[in-house]
Specification:
The protein is of the alpha/beta class. It has 15 helices and 5 strands. β3, α10 and β4 form a beta-alpha-beta unit.
Length: 290
């Protein structure tokens, strides 16, 4: 890693640690990072820390886009997500944010978490078991759960969250959770109602899944639908104006090149991953003099 990259990692780690009541709890929330390693980095003793460890930490504490030098732009969806998260955190509500794949949900959530205390993001997976779900929540809030049973872990995580001033749990790609894990969410909500904001984010597939579950009277679905207020927070789609702003923020300002990026990504509904790739290609062509 270059000296600049190392300093950026230290700065991001320092901001991350400030979200926790102690360095030990911050270290517990990170995968493969001991309190001693964390302290060594923050104290500038990088000689005892490998580049691989620094890269792992950077991936965990810095928004992925920012970590690779990509300039994040506050698109319409970005602003909507931030407003929904702020509302959920301040008023301790449950929100389910729905948006197209590639509209920037994960990036916006990571940015919000990096700017605010007591915000914890859990990336969901279809293979997640109840124990994985509970232990990941525990880890994110800085709780070591090794040797603890799943119910003990859940109770300890709930207890820690209840001690916080304005906690917010964010479940990214929440539609991937299986029914058994959904049931654990109900348990979690029942203990944290009025004490913690909860935000789920996913594609619109969840609307069909919830509707089908409610109509067929499947266990837990009506409870879940009720707890999100029987409505979804639907994001506006990415616009050509958003794409233009992203181009300019990331060094592509030629009107013709920006127009080409917009045309090239329109058929993908301006998926921001595609936009990023198109900008990269346009800049490479410019460097090659094409």
């Amino acid at each position: 890693m270059t000296p600049t990259e190392k300093q950026m990692t230290i700065d991001a780690l320092r901001a991350y640690v400030e979200k926790y009541p102690s360095r030990n709890k911050a270290a517990a929330s990170l995968k493969g990072v001991s309190p001693a390693t964390l302290s060594a980095i923050l104290n500038g003793k990088l000689g005892v820390v490998s580049d691989e460890m620094l890269r792992s930490i950077r991936e965990q504490v810095a928004p992925a886009a920012a970590a690779c030098g990509w300039q994040i732009v506050e698109t319409g969806a970005f602003q909507e997500i931030r407003a929904a998260m702020r509302d959920a955190q301040e008023y301790k509500k449950v929100r389910w944010i729905v948006g197209d794949a590639g509209c920037g949900k994960t990036t916006a959530a990571a940015a919000y978490a990096s700017e605010n205390r007591e915000v914890f993001t859990v990336l969901c997976d279809e293979d997640m078991r109840k124990s994985d779900f509970v232990r990941e929540i525990a880890r994110r809030v800085g709780l070591k759960s090794a040797g603890m049973r799943i119910r003990e872990t859940l109770e300890a995580a709930i207890g820690r969250i209840q001690q916080m001033d304005a906690p917010l749990l964010v479940f990214d790609e929440g539609d991937k959770l299986n029914d058994n894990v959904f049931h654990y969410f109900i348990n979690l909500y029942n203990h944290l109602e009025g004490k913690c904001g909860i935000v789920f984010m996913s594609t619109s597939y969840i609307e069909q899944r919830i509707e089908h579950g409610v109509n067929s009277n499947r266990k837990g679905y009506n409870e879940i639908y009720s707890r999100i207020g029987r409505r979804f927070f639907t994001l506006d789609p990415t616009t050509p104006m958003d794409v233009s702003a992203i181009c300019h923020a990331n060094g592509l300002t030629d009107t013709r090149q920006v127009s080409n990026v917009i045309i090239a990504t329109e058929k993908e509904d301006f998926d921001l991953r595609c936009v990023k790739g198109a900008i990269h290609r346009a800049k490479k062509l410019r460097e090659a003099g094409a």
